[in-house]
Amino acid sequence: MRYKSVERMKPIGKHSLLGASGEISDFQEILRYLNELILYDNMWDNGNSLGPKEVHNYLTRVMYNRRNKFNPLWNSLVLGGVKNGNKYLGTVSMIGVNFKDNHVATGFGNHLAQPILRQEWHKNLSFEDGDKLLEKCMCVLLYRDRSAVNKLQIAKITEEGVTINQPYSLKTYWEFSTFENPAQGAIGSW
Prior knowledge:
Blueprint: E1 9-12, E2 16-22, H1 24-43, H2 52-68, E3 75-83, E4 86-92, E5 98-100, H3 109-120, H4 127-144, E6 151-152, E7 155-158, E8 161-164, E9 168-169, H5 177-180
Helix pairs in contact: 3-4
């Protein structure tokens, strides 16, 4: 909330993209770990490179290890990638809990965006339709958290590499009558 223009997505190696929510300094520490891992992997010079599955497993171990030392990295991570035609999308929490799925979310998105994704996502979704679906999810999240920023950044991962677009602002409409007096008609002491 304090730093509104910090980008939270970074390419990892040739095949992966990492996104993070949470503490930015801990995200920088994770990026330092990953840079060392990629550098070590490149020193083998065997023509092979780490894919998204291997990076996801590494992040799971890092987050779980830091949790066990009672010094967790305060981030939720999303890692996606494509290698040898295999698509991969996974998430890791700050305590090392991880899973992979066709669509993932962190934080508030687990409660508000995931139901929309479960209902509207399908296997043959085009990039443009996926973009619209993502914007719909982000608008719902923005309307529910007024301290959030209405900027969004989209990335595309293909066999050729990772493309991260410039951030842009969502189109919003704040003239709904329920936004004017949200407590009107509410039952209880709130």
